[in-house]
Amino acid sequence: MGLSNKKEEQLKRMPYIDTKIEKSRDGRYVIHKTTITHIRPVAYYQAVLDGEARGNPESGLEGDDQAEA
Fold it and tell me: Which class for 41: exposed (0-12), middle (13-18), buried (19 or more C-beta within 10 A)?
């Protein structure tokens, strides 16, 4: 029984998580590194940044609509 198309699309949108565990050079410590990779179009992040710039009164940007309210 395979995954449904909807579930496959959902899994494709999830971030890639990579983990690496190793000992330090002197052998006294365990080093655990986790990398989370999100792949998104630039337009997505530009929309997020533009939204924060307009809605964040602490941004210090001129023309901030909510800073005057």
Answer: exposed
Q: Looking at this protein, which amino acid is placed at residue 45?
A: Y
pTM above 0.85, yes or no: no
Sequence-ordered strand ranges (E) for the chain: 16-23, 30-37
For the chain, the C-alpha Rg in angstroms (whole number) is 21
User: Cα-flanking dihedrals φ and ψ of residue 31, to 5°?
Assistant: -110, 120
Please check whether residue 34 is in contact with residue 18, taking contact to mean a CB–CB distance below 8 angstroms: yes
Q: Within 13 Å and on the Cβ side, how many CA atoms surround 52? A: 7
DSSP 15: P
Render pLDDT for 49-66 as a digit per residue (tens, 0 to 9).
888 655 444 444 444 444
Q: What pLDDT does residue 53 have?
A: 54
